[in-house]
Amino acid sequence: MVPVKKSGMIDRWVKKHLVLYTGAISHPFILSIRDGTVDFSSFKRWLVRTLFYQEILEQEFSLIVLIESKDWQNQFVLLIVE
């Protein structure tokens, strides 16, 4: 009997989205990180963008928590205090 290789979640995702994955790992910025030649101004722009999107996601998550909470008035106060 030939052993069957199990496919993990990441393997399945890469197979399903191969074009997207290949484009992402061959992006010039990613290649410059790999090579150690990343331009400092490009890195700063990436860092600012990442922090901006993280802030947006945190706000979206807070809104989701607020909507999902049964005791929304107390939850709202907690979210403002934090």
TrEMBL record:
Entry superkingdom: Eukaryota
One Pfam family matching this protein: TENA_THI-4
The Thiaminase-2/PQQC domain, residue ranges: 18-72
SUPFAM superfamilies given in the database record: Heme oxygenase-like
Name this protein carries in UniProt: Thiaminase-2/PQQC domain-containing protein
Organism: Salix suchowensis
